């Protein structure tokens, strides 16, 4: 498992979460899941109306920053090649839709060289002149922060334990008492989240939690 700020995930559980998010967030745009059977075409879902294509990646184990960058870089390279290799098969599924944005969704990005790599691959793909690629084709890299609200919502729905990283809180609250120390502020922020299921706050419970009850 790979430890993220939202809890541990592996390739399968991360993809399952992403599919739930994509279906909810992009359903109105005609989102379609692309199953890996009978083949992996480098796309795990796309929107028929807006031409977004998604590919998810989460490592199954912990890596150093350099190792993670290399794994993500190679994943992007390998999956983009499939757009050219399986052009005909993908076109049968896309119909008249062309891919305008290929979005790589991964829990975290810790090396800005990945953006440089994505830009170089974007220019390369546009040079292929394949029928499923739009003239304004773009590659985007999105970490979990782009879907923070949706991740927390689905963790609540699925009854999963919420996990928060103190160094990068998921949700920011503005407390009235600006003199609170950082530790106390973090405790209050987390307690507010615990009391805010389905956006319905419980003030009495919050007071009890903040008092150590």
Word description of this protein:
- The chain is α/β, with parallel strands linked by helices.
- The protein has helices spanning 11-25, 65-85, 87-94, 113-126, 148-157, 182-194, 203-210, and strands spanning 2-4, 7-9, 31-33, 45-47, 52-56, 99-105, 133-142.
- Helix 4 links the parallel strand 6 (99-105) and strand 7.
- Helix 2 (65-85) runs parallel beside helix 4 (113-126).
Number of strands: 7
Q: Give the overall form.
A: globular
Q: From N to C, what is the helix and strand string?
A: EEHEEEHHEHEHHH
Note poorly predicted spans. 166-180
Please state the structural category. Answer: alpha/beta
Strand content: 15-25%
Radius of gyration: 20 Å
Give the termini separation: 34 Å
Helix content: 40-55%
What is the tally of helical segments? 7
Mean pLDDT comes to 84
Sequence of strands across the biggest β-sheet: 3-4-5-6-7
What profile does the largest beta sheet have? 5 strands, mixed
In short:
The chain is 42% helix and 16% strand. With 213 residues, the protein is of the alpha/beta class. It is globular, with a radius of gyration of 20 Å.
Write the layout of secondary structure elements.
Elements: E1 2-4, E2 7-9, H1 11-25, E3 31-33, E4 45-47, E5 52-56, H2 65-85, H3 87-94, E6 99-105, H4 113-126, E7 133-142, H5 148-157, H6 182-194, H7 203-210
Parallel strand pairs: 5-6, 6-7
Antiparallel strand pairs: 1-2, 3-4, 4-5
Which properties best describe this structure?
213 residues, alpha/beta, 5-stranded mixed sheet, 16% strand
């Amino acid at each position: 498992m790979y430890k993220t700020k939202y809890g541990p995930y592996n390739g399968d559980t991360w993809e399952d979460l992403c599919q739930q998010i994509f279906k909810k967030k992009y359903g109105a745009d005609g989102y379609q899941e692309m199953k890996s059977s009978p083949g992996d075409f480098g796309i795990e879902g796309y929107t028929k109306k807006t031409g977004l294509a998604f590919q998810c990646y989460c490592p199954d184990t912990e890596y150093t920053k350099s190792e993670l960058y290399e794994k993500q870089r190679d994943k992007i390279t390998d999956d983009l090649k499939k757009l050219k290799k399986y052009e005909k098969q993908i076109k049968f599924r896309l119909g008249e839709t062309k891919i305008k944005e290929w979005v790589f969704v991964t829990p975290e990005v810790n090396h800005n060289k990945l953006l440089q790599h994505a830009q170089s691959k974007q220019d390369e793909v546009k040079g292929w002149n394949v029928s499923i690629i739009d003239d304004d084709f773009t590659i985007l890299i999105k970490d979990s922060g782009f879907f923070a609200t949706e991740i927390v919502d689905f963790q609540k729905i699925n009854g999963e334990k919420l996990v928060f990283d103190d160094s990068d809180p998921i949700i920011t609250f503005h407390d009235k008492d600006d003199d609170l120390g950082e530790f106390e502020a973090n405790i209050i922020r987390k307690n507010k989240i615990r009391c805010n299921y389905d956006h319905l706050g419980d003030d009495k419970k919050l007071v009890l939690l903040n008092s150590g009850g």
